[in-house]
Amino acid sequence: MNQHTTTLLVIGGGPGGYIAAIRAGQLGIPTTLVEAAELGGTCLNVGCIPSKALIHAAEEFDKASHYASGSALGISVQAPRIDIGQTVLWKDGIVGRLTGGVAALLKKSGVRVVKGWANIVDGKTVEVIRDGESPQRIGCEHLLLATGSHATELPFMPFGGMVISATEALSPKTVPGKLVVVGAGYIGLELGIAYAKLGAQVDVVEAQERILPAYDAELTRPVAHALKGLGVETHPGCSVLGLDPEGAAVRIRNAAGEESALAADQVLVAVGRRPNTRGFGLEKLRIDMDGHFIKVDDQCRTSMRDVWAIGDVTGEPMLAHRAMAQGEMVAEIISGKRRHFTPAAIAAVCFTDPEVVVVGATPQLARAQGVACVDAVFPFAANGRAMSLEAKDGFVRVVARSDNHLIVGWQAVGKAVSELSAAFAQSIEMGATLEDVAGTIHAHPTLGEAIQEAALRALGHALHI
Ligand code: FAD
């Protein structure tokens, strides 16, 4: 059996694991990263990046289709066509460039990458299994678990055949005539909207009372309105019973107990994700768990000395930027730096149309936590840049403490508001007040002016409304 030893052994090459390994390498820590599939993990291969590429392609096609039926802008085109195979190739090209970039960065940082399935032997030893090769044993001082998560399967409607997860939805061979999306969280809606723009008739089934149930109703209203415009039928308060035995349809039951069938060529199940905690010997460590997740403290230490965990396997929010921030921190702590994972805010973005951003506390949350707060909304309908982009739907909302005007939250819905999320997070992280943001000169004409105007409005003197 081959054997080598290292200081840090990382299991999983997703955004959490690869960032931890790169930073550790930069800090001179001998590091080995084990990845069973492709570097980049869910995010680069079958998550964040390919989904945004497909969403962009769908948006462009939809735009062209609108121009084909005439537009107020005076632009007209012939009826557009899409070669979905070429779209997938283009998307794969982006993924390939990014995963290749990760491999190059790991190499530059001196990280040893081992391809194969990592099996934990004990807290200091991992065995890597690779088809056709004898297992390789790696000894380590520190073990970092960054094994990520997988799509949750419905036991009565398992993946296979016409029932697909986001992974298959990101590489369509054809655009289905009728797509039923189960789950109106961000993944289901992002992909459902993309497929509707690509020409599918889309139905979205959601067990809770409205789409994007994790977000407040005021924020999600413009998205619900846009879904109607796209012809997407939503079925809130409905549970899925399974595939119709008679043929291509999904049976659902509404809150009143009435059953019906939705015709489907494909069914995308997007009902959440489960942490990857099985099949690699984790149970041998007997570390403390937090439900399905690995329990960690604010330094991402597990209950076992020198065993660390980051990213989706450690809980919500299951987002790439959280995993990356945790990974960087763990490498720095191992190198001797004093760090804690106590972010003031982690932005959550839905790349729906319009987009939705939530950073920090909503007014409801702040009040529920006993914080007396002021909040104010500035609508994009009063923003010149939004008008020129035909993007008047939506708003920016700021939430601040009443006593000292410290900003505790931002929410926004509208075109391209994902790009405002950094400004939102920075203001909270840096302890900005309403006066700080209101007194910052924002470039004109930009969507970002809505940030300044929301702060001005909270202070009682918005200028453009
Ligand atoms: P992962 O990225 O899941 O990586 C874990 C890696 O570990 C995998 O490569 C896996 O092969 C490997 N692995 C697991 N077990 C072993 C083992 N025993 N041996 C060897 N290797 C192993 N997040 C955002 O922030 N923004 C978005 O816009 C966004 N969009 C998304 C869209 C979709 C469709 C999906 C599915 C997810 C999206 N996410 C998004 C979530 C994001 O992808 C995850 O939060 C992120 O990838 C988590 O990173 P991670 O490093 O914890 O795990």
UniProtKB/TrEMBL annotation:
Family assignment from sequence similarity: Belongs to the class-I pyridine nucleotide-disulfide oxidoreductase family.
Keywords of this entry: Disulfide bond, FAD, Flavoprotein, NAD, Nucleotide-binding, Oxidoreductase, Redox-active center
A Pfam family that the UniProt record links to this protein: Pyr_redox_dim
Highest taxon, organism lineage: Bacteria
TM stretches of this protein: none
Note: The active site is a redox-active disulfide bond.
PROSITE patterns: PYRIDINE_REDOX_1
Binding site for NAD(+): 183-190, 206, 272
Annotated EC: 1.8.1.4
Disulfide bond entries: 43-48
Tagged with keyword Iron: no
InterPro entries: Class-I_Pyr_Nuc-Dis_Oxidored (IPR050151), FAD/NAD-bd_sf (IPR036188), FAD/NAD-binding_dom (IPR023753), FAD/NAD-linked_Rdtase_dimer_sf (IPR016156), Lipoamide_DH (IPR006258), Pyr_nuc-diS_OxRdtase (IPR001100), Pyr_nucl-diS_OxRdtase_dimer (IPR004099), Pyr_OxRdtase_I_AS (IPR012999)
Chain's gene name: lpdA
Catalytic activity: N(6)-[(R)-dihydrolipoyl]-L-lysyl-[protein] + NAD(+) = N(6)-[(R)-lipoyl]-L-lysyl-[protein] + NADH + H(+)
Domain FAD/NAD(P)-binding, chain residue ranges per copy: 8-327
Record's cofactor remark: Binds 1 FAD per subunit.
Domain (Pyridine nucleotide-disulphide oxidoreductase dimerisation): residue spans on this chain: 346-455
Protein name, as recorded: Dihydrolipoyl dehydrogenase
Cofactor(s) this protein requires: FAD
Active site: 444 (proton acceptor)
Residue positions binding FAD: 52, 147-149, 312, 318-321
Organism lineage string: Bacteria, Pseudomonadati, Pseudomonadota, Betaproteobacteria, Burkholderiales
PANTHER family: DIHYDROLIPOYL DEHYDROGENASE, DISULFIDE OXIDOREDUCTASE
Gene Ontology terms, MF aspect: dihydrolipoyl dehydrogenase (NADH) activity; flavin adenine dinucleotide binding
GO biological process: 2-oxoglutarate metabolic process
